[in-house]
Write a structure and sequence with these properties.
The complex is a heterodimer of chains A (358) and B (309). With 358 residues, chain A is α/β, with parallel strands linked by helices. Chain A folds into two domains: 21-167 and 293-316, 3-Layer(aba) Sandwich (Rossmann fold); 169-290 and 328-350, Response regulator (Rossmann fold, 3-Layer(aba) Sandwich), CATH 3.40.50. Helix content of chain A is 38%, strand content 18%. Chain A is built from ten helices and twelve strands. Chain A has helices at 2-19, 72-87, 104-116, 130-136, 169-183, 198-214, 231-243, 257-265, 294-305, 335-350; strands spanning 57-62, 93-98, 121-125, 144-148, 162-167, 188-193, 219-224, 248-251, 269-274, 285-291, 313-316, 323-327. In chain A, the strands form two sheets. A six-stranded parallel beta sheet of chain A has the order 2-1-3-4-5-11, sandwiched between helices. In chain A, α5 (169-183) runs parallel beside α6 and α5 (169-183) runs antiparallel to α10. Chain B is mainly α. Chain B has one domain (9-127, 147-292): Orthogonal Bundle (ABC transporter involved in vitamin B12 uptake, BtuC), CATH 1.10.3470. Helix content of chain B is 71%, strand content 2%. Chain B is built from twelve helices and two strands. Chain B has a two-stranded antiparallel sheet with strand order 1-2. In chain B, α1 (7-36) packs across α10 and α10 crosses α11. Chain B is globular and about 65 Å long. The chains are: A alpha/beta (358), B mainly alpha (309). Chains A and B meet through α1, β7, α7 and α8 of A and α1, α4, α10, α11 and α12 of B.
Chain lengths: 358, 309
């Protein structure tokens, strides 16, 4: 009976873990690193400007989901690839990544490994990695770290080598909301959210604000499924919204692929965020807010080149083109709706539209 | 508040619950066979993930859902075979090796996904097949008889499993091997052969559980898409006291509460979402702890059998 109870306890523990949507997948970096590339001694970056660097600028990124999640992690990886292409390919910039790092302890170990292997910039792509970074960064004063999404660079704690980055996801959320409310004939819109926190919460607040500003009578129903990975529950959440009368859906994070499938089956419109989800359901995706972290990365790299290893926070916005509205060309968006969306973008950029997020 | 008792909501909760319960049924019925023969397989989640990927990939590339189903069963059976070898022949600790197989399935499905697909895609999966006449029954028809074929099979599996376990010689052998392997052995029942059979059967059904998600209910493959579901399936076997009907009750209860909490959020029932999403888990844990003291597990569960010859 004792053994029985032990098994039950283990199960209970696993249940709790899976309720948090965890995935203890630790993968080795994609590229093996030749040992001789590890610099024997740290060389201060200001002595070797990028164009004269004999070695490539080395970037490592640690992220919670995969580089192909059509969402959060992919948005950063794609931006890194864009920066790399601009800098002159793999010879100028080397990128390694560790994906699926849902377990924070594993991520912390990876961050420390990359830092001690001489990477110039180590990106901890997930707000859950903050306390690990706070502990590790002071040990590697000539390595730059970046942490998102947050605005906290730990400068208050005397740490000078951490950059922070954040997305004003409520901005594209607002624009999506404007279009969604204009297109909804039923006046009911469903939102499939993961966990009410971070940029998911911001996006949903912006979306609700945009929708209700366009049509005060529209009913935006929000549900949080409590997981970033439960595709099945996301799909049933979409079914629930549709049964409750919604004819337009949106959602955020990587588990929404389940909801998009349901939307497509039922001919219900979909609005995406983080990355373009048009390829999944070209018939029903209307618009996506796409994150382009390149703006933030460019500024970080410029700073590192000048010997500034951290201390600054960057926010991607519609104004600095870090957030881009991406419309599905195959969807026939009415002129006046597109005009309303463009007006919303302009209003957010010039400050005439203020989105309440608190 | 009265909205929650409307026909739309009741139909919505129940039909969502039936769909959500489907993968649990395959995996948990398979696990029931294994545990009744004395083997705890914690690798269900990994078998499901590989089954989900294999069936998705094959359905996508060949356009044949039947091939997809077959490959899911084959992949699950092979993982079951490996699990059987490790636990029956090598006498490995069952819990630990199960976790090992889980991690293998998780990692391998991610690797294959990345190598063979690279990005999330959709596939045309099994569509809804309304059952003639029955699907016309008001309310009930919509809940039970307008689902895809894998949902029907999952529910038919329950009486079949009950019959096999309780009314056939094979079932008697399985139960005796799980209760008293020494006695079964002395009566000429091959403990090893029975356990191989049940673990491979369990793997096959877990593979189907994965396929029921990737090519029937969701029609998409995403890394780690089972999201802990395989572990809940193992918990449901305890919940159901190692009986197919009990497993069915547990799977339905868990899934119904889950779909109910989705509806509660949609209907603006004033409960914080954090609490709402915990409900099915809390309930399962409470019932698990409550039942574990009352129901006896198969006596030889997790114990390797050594003939000593």
């Amino acid at each position: 009976m004792k053994k029985n109870l032990l098994v039950v306890l283990i199960l209970a523990l696993v249940l709790v873990l899976s309720a948090c949507g965890s995935a203890p997948a630790a993968e080795a970096p994609a590229e093996e690193m030749p040992a001789e590339e590890m610099p024997a001694e740290e060389m201060p970056a200001e002595e070797m400007p990028a164009e004269e660097m004999a070695e490539a600028f080395k970037v490592a990124i640690i992220m919670p989901s995969s580089i192909t999640d059509l969402a959060f992690s992919q948005s950063m990886y794609d931006a890194l690839l864009a920066v790399q292409a601009e800098m002159g390919g793999e010879a100028a910039m080397e990128i390694v990544y560790s994906e699926g790092m849902f377990v924070v302890d594993d991520a912390a170990a990876a961050i420390r490994d990359y830092a001690s292997e001489g990477y110039n910039l180590v990106i901890a792509h997930g707000s859950q990695y903050g306390s690990s970074l706070q502990e590790i960064a002071p040990d590697f004063p000539t390595t730059s770290f970046a942490w998102g999404t947050t605005l906290n660079t730990f400068s208050d704690e005397g740490i000078t080598n951490v950059f922070a980055y954040e997305a004003n996801s409520q901005e594209g959320g607002y624009v999506n909301g404007v279009v969604a409310a204009s297109l909804s004939e039923a006046g009911v819109i469903g939102v499939v959210g993961p966990i009410e926190a971070g940029d998911a919460a911001l996006y949903v607040k912006g979306f609700v604000a945009g929708a209700t500003a366009t049509n005060p009578d529209v009913d935006v129903k929000v549900s949080w499924i409590g997981s970033f990975s439960d595709v099945a529950l996301a799909s049933e959440s979409a079914n629930t919204h549709i049964a409750a009368g919604a004819d337009v859906l949106t959602g955020t994070a990587q588990m929404v692929v389940g909801a998009i499938g349901v939307a497509e089956e039922n001919g219900v419109l979909w609005f995406g965020t983080q990355a373009s989800q048009t390829s999944l359901a070209p018939d029903i995706v209307v618009a996506n807010q796409v994150y382009d972290w390149k703006v933030a990365l460019d500024q970080m790299l410029a700073n590192i080149e000048n010997g500034v290893y951290g201390g600054e926070a960057y926010t991607i916005t519609l104004a600095n083109s870090g957030l881009v509205m991406d419309y599905n060309g195959a969807y026939d968006l009415p002129e006046d709706v597109k005009a309303a969306a463009d007006a919303a973008v302009a209003g957010i950029i010039d400050g005439s539209i203020v989105i309440p997020v608190e | 508040m009265n909205e929650i008792f409307s026909a739309t909501v009741i139909i919505g909760v129940l039909s969502s619950g039936i769909r959500l319960a489907t993968p649990y049924l395959y995996a948990a019925i398979g696990e029931t066979f294994g545990q009744r023969s004395g083997v705890l397989n914690l690798g269900v989640e990994g078998q499901m993930l590989l089954g989900a990927f294999a069936s998705f990939y094959v359905a996508l590339t060949t356009g044949s859902l039947v091939y997809g189903l077959l490959i899911a069963m084959l992949v699950g059976a092979l993982m079951g075979l490996a699990m059987a070898y490790v636990t029956v022949n090598l006498h490995a600790e069952q819990g630990i090796s199960g976790i090992g197989f889980y991690l293998f399935g998780l990692g391998m499905s991610e690797l294959l996904f990345k190598m063979l697909l690279g990005t999330v895609e959709t596939v045309k999966g099994f569509s809804v097949v309304p059952i003639p006449f029955l699907s016309q029954i008001p309310v009930l028809g919509e809940i039970f008889f307008q689902q895809n074929i894998l949902v029907y099979i999952a529910f038919l599996l329950v009486p079949v499993a009950w019959f096999v376990l309780n009314k056939t010689t094979l079932g008697l052998k399985i139960r005796s091997v799980g209760e008293n392997p020494e006695a079964a052995d002395s009566l000429g029942v091959s403990v090893a052969r029975i356990r191989y059979f049940t673990i491979i059967l369990g793997g096959t059904l877990s593979g189907l559980a994965g396929a029921s998600m990737s090519i029937a209910l969701l029609n998409v493959f995403q890394q780690n898409m089972t999201s802990g579901l395989g572990f809940i399936a193992v918990a449901l076997v305890y919940f159901g006291a190692w009986r197919p009907w009990g497993v069915l009750a547990g799977a339905l209860l868990f899934s119904m509460v889950n779909s109910l909490q989705l509806w509660m959020q949609v209907l603006n029932v004033p409960i914080p979402s954090d609490i709402a999403v915990m409900l099915p888990y809390l309930l399962t844990i409470i019932v698990l702890v409550a039942t574990v003291s009352r129901v006896r597990s198969p006596a030889a569960l997790t114990k390797p059998f050594d003939r000593g010859d």
